Each structure stands twice: as structure tokens, then as C-alpha cells.
From TrEMBL:
Name this protein carries in UniProt: Uncharacterized protein
Species of the source: Arundo donax
Length: 18
């Protein structure tokens, strides 16, 4: 579950960095 949480956080930050 921790791995899924980290991947979701990265995806959420992706649009903010773009």
C-alpha cells in the first residue's frame, strides 16, 4: 500500500511541475 501511495503522490506532483 505504501508503494501505491508514493506513486499517486508522484503523479499528482507531475502536473504541478509541468
Amino acid at each position: 500500500m505504501v508503494r501505491l501511495s508514493r506513486r499517486m503522490v508522484r503523479f499528482s506532483l507531475t502536473p504541478e511541475l509541468l
